[in-house]
Amino acid sequence: MASSLAPLLIILSFFFFSLSRALPREAVFDAADVLSDSGFVSMALTLEIVAETLLEQSPSATVFAASDSAFKKSGQPSLDLLRFHLSPLPLTPSSLRLLTAGARIPTMLPGQSLTVTTASSDRVTSINNIKLTESPIYDDGFLLVYGIHRFFDPNFQFNSRRPSSDSNSSCSAKNHTAGASDSFDQAIQTLKTGGYSAVASFLGMQLSGVVEQSGITVFAPADDVVMNRIGDIGEYPSFFRRHVVPCRLLWNDLVNFADGSELSTFLEGFAINITRSDGVLILNGVPVFFPDVFFNDRVVVHGVSDVLAAQGNALHENALNVDDEENQFDPSEY
Predict the structure, then answer these.
(1) Domains, the chain
(2) pLDDT tens for residues 140-158?
């Protein structure tokens, strides 16, 4: 197993920053200067005004900057509309390209998200049916700014052809069925090319061909995080089981859970607690930084910034010490 985890692919850049870090004021003003020089004068001035209120409260952000002609046509946007154009995630071009049509991007406007509308034939990313500049106008690794030709519409509705989600908040593990190898193969290939090869390996070895009728949801830490956090091969089964929920939960399902809700996992006694902080969804203290990395009719994957640990030390110790025999996926158990 160790050899299968050794080759690490390109890691998405936004997993490397510390949550305790706040965006420095200097970065915001540098971004405003670059925006102004690039012909986005109105957004540059607006960014300087709202920096302390919005951006300096977050360790990272992506700004979708409307053009001067958009300001001229629509006037100065409200604070809520500005929040709708800011995401707390540092969305690099490579991470945006991994998001398929229908994927949701959280914004700093509570309860509101943007929707990826990029078609497979498009060379540039489209959000809410508005194309972004092909490359960021500004990018320091934590703060990224893309240009758009008009403001996003908060009432935009995506005509989704995504499979419907019959999510079950209790997520009880039962009613396994076979015949889902194609669904797993698709998920595994996407994860391997997106910096989640460790989780892809677990998925292939422990779940391929075995899935519940209600599907599964995988909360996937990036490769470097996994390799740094687990060293004993005996911990691998319990590690994987606590990151998998036995029901299919898309991003729009997750955001509808109230704070304090719990999701049961395949690791007996281990639950995932849902909370929020500044509009970011938090699972056992770990932010969801890449919603809907992958989804099909049976499997949904969300990227998380760290390994999910139990909320209580006693439960955590119990989870890590479950016998290996009990930690193996066995279809006959269900």
Answers:
(1) 13-148 (2.30.180.10), 166-329 (2.30.180.10)
(2) 988 999 999 999 999 998 8
Task: State the pairing for strand pair 61-66/143-148.
Answer: parallel
Q: In what helix (H) or strand (E) does residue 31 lie, and over which residues does it extend? A: helix 25-37
Kindly report each contact of residues 78-85 with a partner whose C-beta sits within 8 Å and lies 24 or more positions away, as own/partner: 79/50, 79/53, 80/109, 80/154, 81/151, 81/154, 82/46, 82/50, 82/54, 83/54, 83/107, 83/108, 83/109, 83/112, 84/108, 84/109, 84/112, 84/114, 84/152, 84/154, 85/151, 85/152
pLDDT in tens, 279-327: 678 999 988 878 888 888 888 888 888 889 876 543 343 333 433 334 3
Q: Is the pTM of this model over 0.85?
A: no
Residue 26's contacts (CB-CB under 8 Å, 6 or more residues apart) are none
